[in-house]
Write a structure and sequence with these properties.
four-stranded parallel beta sheet, alpha/beta, Rossmann fold, 49% helix
Length: 338
């Protein structure tokens, strides 16, 4: 698992060279809906946030077996992301969107989604196989941005992506920070991860990596919303906890994070500030690398296999047994927001 993260720069460079098969320019697209789950779904969250700096087109993320009918029209572009290409939620949502007439693009390493893309001549990118989905983040992120650009859906200059991925080359520095973070988190039963709305997907990514690789639960709090609810939860008793604060590139947001850091220390938390540099895409890439390395280091300290996810396998087996019923409900009945 560690080797995957150490090769992220190479993976990102490889993704830049991928061909967009069945590429075509779509006119009149007014919104993008990204569908995906787990390690693929978090890519959608990142794309939606990163694109706020790069283009004006609104991007929404939907993580379920379906997309509400009322949300799809002829001016909607659906980006389906599934590393394996066999994620049932993403397959059924994609088929439903196709049935509703949406324009669709697909990013996957193979599987049913690539079969669908080939048969219906949808724009798609086939990415490298053989990785754990969560370790394939740079492949999926870069490929997704490239597909949106090559289809004329969103303006993502490839030069911007090329420059951003260079941050992944500094693996030694990322490893040093990861070791510090792992030492800080070692012994924590439920770490708290804090970020601003601008970097909420990065905080969720941190939680997910700790869940899957390190096999520990974690809690995410997002500023400024946390000041209206989460903060009150720490008033009842003194907490002996660990908190990681992910810095922002906006001054007032860092002021809010500093305020909360001081408050958390006052109720018993130890606080680690993860400060990142560069533009938003660089921060997402490099922050994700540090987070991945941290989670694997913790797994090694715990003596567990970061690749093994028994409970997810249990869920997939459940889906396998109930696939026909789920597909019939989604594709025949569908869903509509009233």
């Amino acid at each position: 698992m560690l080797e995957y993260y150490m090769n992220w720069y190479r993976f990102a460079e490889e993704a830049l060279r991928y061909e967009v098969r069945n590429a075509m320019i779509f006119e009149g697209i007014k919104k993008v809906v990204v569908i995906g789950m787990g390690g693929s779904g978090i890519v959608g969250d990142m794309v939606a946030t990163i694109m706020q700096d790069l283009d004006k087109i609104p991007i929404y993320v939907y993580k379920d077996f379906y997309v509400p009918k009322s949300f799809i029209d002829e001016n909607t572009f659906v980006l389906s992301i599934s590393y394996s290409g066999n994620t049932l939620e993403t397959i059924t949502a994609t088929l439903q969107a196709l049935k509703l007439g949406a324009k669709i693009g697909i990013v996957a390493s193979g599987g049913e989604l690539i079969d669908i893309a080939s048969k219906t001549k949808l724009p798609h990118i086939i990415i490298k196989q053989g990785l754990a989905p969560r370790a394939a983040l740079p492949l999926m992120l870069v490929a997704s941005l490239k597909l949106l650009s090559m289809c004329g859906v969103a303006k993502v200059p490839l030069s911007v992506i090329e420059e951003a991925i260079t941050v992944l080359g500094d693996v030694n520095k990322a490893s040093q920070i990861a070791l510090q973070l792992a030492s800080f988190l070692d012994g924590s039963t439920m770490p708290l991860i804090i970020a601003t709305t601008r970097y909420a997907p990065l905080a969720v990514r941190f939680k997910n990596e700790l869940n899957e690789n390190s096999k520990i639960p974690a809690k995410v709090e997002i500023a400024p919303e946390l000041f209206h609810n989460d903060i009150v939860g720490w008033e009842r008793q003194r907490i002996n906890g660990k908190a990681i604060v992910i810095g922002s590139d906006i001054d007032y947001e860092n002021m809010l994070l500093d305020l909360y850091s001081d408050y958390l220390r006052s109720v018993g938390f130890d606080v680690f500030h993860l400060d990142l540099e560069g533009n938003i895409l660089q921060r997402y890439l490099y922050g994700s690398l540090i987070i991945g390395l941290t989670s694997v280091e913790l797994a090694q300290r715990f003596g567990i296999d970061p690749l093994q996810t028994k409970s997810i396998s249990m869920y997939k087996e459940f889906l396998k047994k109930n696939r026909e019923r789920i597909e019939r409900t989604v594709l025949e009945q569908g869903f509509k927001v009233q």
